[in-house]
Design brief:
Largest sheet: 2 strands, antiparallel
Helix content: 40-55%
Distance between the termini: 21 Å
Number of helices: 9
Radius of gyration: 17 Å
CATH class of one domain: Mainly Alpha
CATH topology of one domain: Endonuclease III, domain 1
CATH superfamily of one domain: Hypothetical protein, domain 2
Order of helices and strands: EEHHHHHHHHH
Length: 194
């Protein structure tokens, strides 16, 4: 790894150092930082980021298909209709991270997503918090955990009825969904200029 936090893979491509395991490498190269739109896709990313809190992202990546199956493809209409029996079902599902508060938050977030349809929707709200400018970080130490925009996004989502959407979790979602490009400048995926 270079001093700036970039590694060169066996394929000769420079990447952010965290993209080293096979699962991370695929996620890094094909998904992380690619713009995501649509309420179902954004609800999935917000839900997975909330479940990741306190865990390794690799744990979530490895359980992602299980989450998709357990949460009906993150269809907000379906998840919003979940009841106590569904919560108990999910608490028994080894394919996901079994945490009652996070499961209940996912259901609340689906309900809030539906309620937002009358006022522009989740996609509009999420992307309205994109920074006017954002440069890819030069070094790993320059990658932030929050931003003024992630603080504002968390506040807007909480006001709309979302749970488990703190500023750090929302900054991670903004990175994952391409709202900000935090691929290090030496990474082959970085697009933002200094």
């Amino acid at each position: 790894m270079t001093a700036d936090g970039v590694v060169v893979g066996d394929d000769g491509l420079a990447r952010c150092a965290w993209g080293s395991s096979p699962e991370y490498l695929t996620y890094h190269d094909t998904e992380w930082g690619v713009p995501v739109h649509g309420e179902r896709a954004l609800l999935e990313r917000i839900t997975l980021e909330a479940f990741q809190s306190g865990l390794s992202w690799l744990t979530i990546l490895r359980k992602r298909e299980g989450f998709r199956a357990a949460f009906d493809g993150f269809d907000p209409q379906v998840v919003a209709a979940y009841d106590d029996a569904d919560v108990e079902r999910l608490l028994q599902d080894a394919r996901i991270v079994r945490n009652r508060r996070k499961i209940e938050a996912a259901i609340a977030n689906a309900r809030a997503t539906l309620a937002m349809r009358a006022t522009g929707g989740l996609d509009e709200l999420f992307w309205s918090h994109a920074p006017a400018t954002h440069a890819s970080p030069a070094r790993l130490d320059d990658v932030r955990a929050t931003s003024p925009e992630s603080v504002a996004l968390a506040k807007s989502l909480k006001t709309a009825g979302f749970a488990h959407v703190g500023p750090t979790t929302m900054y991670a979602a903004m990175q994952a969904c391409g709202v900000v490009d935090d691929h290090l400048r030496g990474c082959h995926r970085a697009t933002a200029a200094a």
